[in-house]
Amino acid sequence: MAAGDEEFCKDYLVIDAKKATLYDVACILICSTDSLKKREFYDEQCEDVDKSTTWNLRRRWLIFVSVVLQKFFIWMKKPLTFTGSFVETWLNLLSSNGGFFGLIINRIRGKVVKVEESSEKFVSMIGELDPRLKLDARVGKDDGRYKPSLSMMAAKLCYENEAFVKAAVQDQLKMVFIGFYEFWNDYQNQFTTHATMFQDALDPNLIVIAFRGTKPFDANDWMTDLDISWYELKHTNDCDDCIGKVHSGFMKALGLQKTKGWPKELEPPSVPNNHHPFAYYKIRENLREILGKNPNAKFIVTGHSLGGALAILFIAVLGLHEETSLLKRLEGVYTFGQPRVGDKGFGRYMMRIIEDYNVKYFRYVYSNDMVPRLPYDDKALFFKHFGMTLYFNSFYDGKVMEEEPNKNYFSLVWIIPKYVNAIWEVIRSFILPYWKGKEYKEQNLEKLFRMVGLIIPGLSAHSPKDYVDVTRIGTDLN
């Protein structure tokens, strides 16, 4: 790490999988600490020796797995992109032509309906799993379910293209579309982060900001999730007081600046018209403008999966910059299937913000969803959730808890219960419309995805479809 990088953090662990050679990967397991620190891909600083656990074999193993998986997605980036495009194109061909037999008939007649990927009719695989776009008409804006339902629908929409999102917001949700954004990642040197903003028509004083989660065929998103590097952020560059250790991949996706960290304001680009928009700074700019015009307006921030991590980090950086005027207008943060973001110190920092500004933070966890149980919460990795958990089982019964059951997912004690639950979820996919109503009928693709849970319990439970159902038919905990 360059010297300038150290100004915004006290301690750090930086692992650059792109620079790691095969020898480097092996070195993680077999080399001494001093030898490992000399490798180009690995950089660590810990002022307190007791806090450095490089010697810990379990931690070495987790770093090894992280690097190997990142290397896999680096190698698979183009094949994964091709596969995603192929799968989604075929799914759209099938849905646009009335299914397989309809496609065959239209092919014979020479009238195959094709949908461009940038079209408002093109649906991602996430959208094919759950095509619902409207809110439950039985839930009014004064209902405790309204904002969670609206938030989850916004988080689900973020997986689609701009034209689709705009049409869905205006035509299905009947709300005011503000914008759809692609944001620059300074470390990956490309646009990796997406978000959307719109204004609630039923409550014109409510602005919704939603971050996109991990797309199934986006290697960059998976690499962001798998990177277990961290920075122990200083409260300010000229102060040794820290806000805690924070997942570096999530911060980079939100707009962390190389060598500068989180400056309160960005400097103008050296080359005119060569400014890349960064998620945190652009959304904050939009909020300042919108809220400045409407003194009664408030906003909520939401996201599913990676999007949930970005949502709560957005609030963390607002606190870091002491954006009091914005934090006072924050109505709530709703995250669904959110991974762990930082350590216990970061949790304490966030709880101060939540208490000082009376922020409503709702972290939803469905059943055995594996993502909220990662990265690991143990002595090898320090990541911890904070605040209360709104946990829902596979019957959609919910309760408020300090931590979801089986907090680290890979517990041997939970292996059999997880597989039994996965079998029940497959059965439930066939009987749910008879149990809860026809609007909860699952698509064949979703039923097929449920089968994945029979192999990897908890993966299919991460589907946005379950979180949409939780906000509609789950226990009202708000």
Automatic annotation (TrEMBL):
InterPro entries: AB_hydrolase_fold (IPR029058), Fungal_lipase-type (IPR002921), OBL-like (IPR044819). CDD domains: Lipase_3. It comes from the Eukaryota. Residues 208-377 form the Fungal lipase-type domain. Keywords: Hydrolase. One of its GO terms (molecular function) is triacylglycerol lipase activity. It holds the Pfam family Lipase_3. It comes from Centaurea solstitialis. GO terms for biological process: lipid metabolic process. This is Fungal lipase-type domain-containing protein.
